[in-house]
Specification:
2 copies of one chain form a homodimer. By secondary structure, chain A is α/β, with parallel strands linked by helices. In chain A, 45% of the residues lie in helices and 14% in strands. Chain A has 14 helices and 10 strands. Chain A has helices spanning 6-16, 29-35, 53-62, 66-71, 80-92, 106-114, 129-140, 151-167, 183-195, 211-218, 241-250, 259-273, 283-286, 310-318; strands at residues 25-26, 39-43, 73-76, 96-101, 118-122, 143-144, 174-178, 200-206, 253-257, 299-303. In chain A, the strands form 2 sheets. Chain A has a 6-stranded mixed beta sheet, sandwiched between helices. Chain A has a 4-stranded parallel beta sheet with strand order 5-4-3-6, with helices on both faces. The A-B interface holds A 18, 21-26, 29-30, 43, 45-46, 50, 87, 111, 114-115, 169, 270-271, 273-277, 306-308, 310, 314 and B 18, 21-26, 29-30, 33, 43, 45-46, 50, 111, 114-115, 169, 270-271, 273-277, 306-308, 310, 314.
């Protein structure tokens, strides 16, 4: 698959139609009043595996040849991509090897194991994750499923944006998406700009993890030091290659949010939607809590994931005031 | 509108299609493992106003004549029906009077007021709610919107079951719904039996609020004393007239759950779906926590509402062990 166009996202949506959940659009008059702007949220926390990552992993695997799919897949992640990959492989009846750091939460390892995936542990300090994945792929004849640097992963992630546009009565004025590797933003930007050229497409990053903002300013990918943020899914030190190619051309802006704003966004999702959203998943909504947006244009927000233990959630939300 | 048939529920679904949310079906392999049965949940907590009640109230109001709708509506409830009614009236641009007990939570009164509805407070101990509603209707020329004893409210509630059947790849072996006035169960039973005669349709009541179970045994509606249960939406002392006519003919069974099982069901929804479900909304799922069901048949469960303050939720879930 070459560089993604809108038609590839339409095709991905057809391919995924019976396999992914059509996640709801949530809105609340009380939330609108509190934020001073009309917001609609695409609740990808209710996607299978609890995050949008399932769309990309599944689409990538369905694009493999029958022979490749039979041999199995390998990927690296300590979080949502690992779980999405192992569930997709389980459903498609193939082998999955997941490369996880040896300090990954035991609960996450357990979830991956329960899906029948093999875990390959490595040490963050002494081993290079990407080299390990490449070695495992070569040794065992497995196909690599990247978490964002793949055209078919980007196309799969883009189905979030396609669904959103189909579910709304009219296009939003602004679309906000969290920015980690950049695959979700890239996929959603392609389809949104194709369907509604007047919708502003904006990525949101943690203040300490502003690798995409810096890279866009410099006009090339730059590496930052390891970000310290509660948004554990967005701790990227450099934008992924393919997503950056897209985002460089299509994003209207990149905004920065602080952890305290992310926590406030998590609190709002609990109060007005009764849902637990993980920090990375609340990052786009966090851009609204400090009144940066106003006016009559609807702002669409992707709540990208909800995988967080209830105790962790409450210790974050409680430690920060109210 | 006369006694409801499947076609009326199809018509209600068309009438409501742009007005209600298509709520998602949620499932979790981990939840299935914990319960020992395959469960799919219809998440009506994500419906507008946070409960399925919006479907019935809106459908009833859309069935009024233009003249009736212009004059306005009146209804009694301290909970989800009150809020659903006031939001529906606000959207349709008409007057709403809501009869609420003077000890109703101030937060709920506030929410109703914010929608522009007028609140008429009464004393539970010295005044009769239903007579008050009838007097207000007569005095002010308003139409009464019952919370369950209305064919168009039942038809609106039945769209929950219709959507569920359309969303599932195959009909479930069992459908579990909470039983309060009985409108949700009646509507869902009509459409489910019409579409899949082999699906067992089962209502679930709090143990102390078993008015429908007792009434079905006796073959006529019986009155019980005011139930003491955390499921505040299911504290009915007698089944509603029209829903009972339907449920008498169509329900395969009625099950009883204890408050501790309801709390456990709330805990499971938080853990596996990251969602706050109110006690009444978790009542149907509570029937699964004690291993009453097993086997390979899928059990579909209606999570009927999610309107609960996070502090109340946590005090309930925490006070009961784990």
């Amino acid at each position: 698959m070459g560089r993604v166009q809108a038609v590839d996202i339409h095709n991905a949506a057809v391919r995924l139609s019976r396999r992914v959940s059509l996640t709801p659009i949530l809105a609340s008059a009380e939330l609108n009043r509190e934020l001073g702007v009309d917001v609609v949220c695409k609740a990808e926390n209710l996607q299978r595996t609890g995050s949008f990552k399932y769309r990309g992993a599944m689409n990538h695997m369905l694009n493999l040849s029958a022979d490749e799919l039979t041999r199995g897949v390998v990927g690296a992640s300590s979080g949502n991509h690992a779980y999405a990959l192992s569930v997709a492989a389980n459903i498609l009846g193939t082998r999955a090897v997941v490369v996880m750091p040896n300090d990954a939460p035991s609960r996450k390892m357990e979830a991956v194991k329960t899906q029948g995936a093999e875990i390959y542990q490595y040490s963050r300090s002494s081993e290079n994750r990407d080299s390990l994945v490449e070695e495992l792929a070569a040794d065992k004849g497995l196909s690599i499923v990247p978490s964002s640097d793949s055209w078919s992963v980007i196309a799969g992630a883009g189905t979030v944006g396609l669904e959103l546009m189909q579910q709304l009565a009219r296009p939003p004025g602004v679309l906000l998406m969290p920015l980690g590797g950049g695959g979700l933003a890239a996929g959603c930007a392609i389809i949104t700009k194709a369907l509604s050229c007047n919708t502003k497409v904006i990525g949101v990053e943690p203040a300490t993890g502003n690798d995409t903002a810096l890279s866009l300013m410099k006009g090339q990918r730059v590496t930052i030091k390891h970000p310290i943020t509660i948004a554990d899914g967005l701790r990227h030190t450099i934008p992924s290659y393919r997503p950056f190619l897209v985002n460089q051309g299509l994003l209207d802006d990149v905004l920065i949010v602080h952890d305290s704003e992310i926590v406030e966004a998590m609190r709002l999702c609990l109060r007005y939607f009764g849902m637990l959203i993980e920090p990375s998943g609340a990052c786009a909504l966090a851009a609204l809590v400090s009144g940066r947006f106003s006016g009559s244009d609807t702002v669409a927000v992707v709540l990208s994931g909800g995988n967080i233990h209830e105790n962790t959630f409450h210790s974050l939300v409680r430690s920060d005031g109210s």
